[in-house]
Design goal:
Length: 155
Amino acid sequence: MTDSINLNEISLPLKLNEEIPDFNEIFQQGNISSVVKVKAEIKKISLKEFNFIGLIRGKFESQCQYCLDQIKVPIKIESNVIIQDLSNLEDSDNDLDVHFQDLDFFKIEELILEEIYLNSSTSLVCSEDKCRTVQESFTDTDKVRPFKKIRDLIK
Ligand SMILES: [Zn+2]
């Protein structure tokens, strides 16, 4: 993990072009155990608001939800997030585009992890045909369901 930065005092905009070599984090969808690359910029947009714009790339390891094979899921997130201090959290209406952190001790890894978490699909499927087919049949069922409800109402 890299050191924290003080967003209230550092000169901005801050250009980031970094590889975080040992980004070992386990989250709901998988396990990131490799390099995460960040090419981004942090700029100040108002007295209490900052903006993180950039690209996050890497991959995480997980399991196919059907055959349980190990799979590697690529991460490629075009990120555009407002950063506010934790003290504003209470006033917020829980906007997903706002990332809250202590601005005096800002850690880029925490923002990256939240972005990966929010942008990762919850359905993880390997490239095998048998698993893809199962997934597609579930998707079709979802599409048909609204019509079925209407039919039930007509009866
Ligand atoms: Zn599979």
